[in-house]
Design brief:
4-stranded mixed β-sheet, 6 strands
């Protein structure tokens, strides 16, 4: 009976119109809604602790500090690419704080592609934007969201967080 209720709820739930429609779980297990960030830009990043792009955590933290009045960076650990995020939530959080001084919000570990893709990333990878749509190719892809919850830019992994492309769009 519970399964039927879930299926019906999913069938009759209106599609998301912005990132503010998503409720998430922090790396500490606390539920929150992205709507709490209304009025600020968001930089949503799929992350991994054992990737060649992992040092971007340091630049993401600098970006979060430098633009804290108008931007919130949120990391989404995912193990979709080469098993590069094998740890549990507590291990990921400790790694990020110890090695890169991360204080920006981290979500619980999720999937960013495939059959078990998190609904937020399904939304982000299909939303129109001036850059590109489609499946995430690797760790540290970045999605810039405007103050109204709309995707305005998407950046591939090699685009550094402090690059002119990102800082100019903020």
């Amino acid at each position: 009976m519970k399964t039927l209720a879930i299926i019906l709820a999913l069938m009759f739930t209106a599609p998301a119109s912005s990132v503010y429609d998503f409720k998430l779980t922090s790396i500490d297990g606390k539920e929150f809604s992205l709507s709490k960030y209304k009025g600020k830009k968001l930089l949503i990043v799929n992350t991994a602790s054992e990737c060649g792009f992992t040092p971007q955590y340091a630049e993401l933290q600098k970006l979060a500090d430098q633009y804290k009045d108008k931007l919130v960076v949120i990391g989404f650990p995912a193990n979709n690419f080469g098993g590069q995020e094998p740890g549990a939530n507590a291990e990921i959080k400790t790694f990020c704080q110890k090695n890169y001084g991360v204080t920006f919000p981290l979500n619980e570990k999720i999937s960013v592609k495939g059959d078990d893709i998190h609904p937020l990333f399904k939304f982000l990878t299909s939303e129109p934007n001036p850059d590109f749509t489609g499946e995430i190719k690797w760790n540290f892809e970045k999605f810039l969201i405007d103050e109204n919850g709309k995707l305005i830019h998407r950046y591939r992994s090699a685009t550094k967080p402090l690059s002119p492309e990102i800082t100019g769009a903020i």
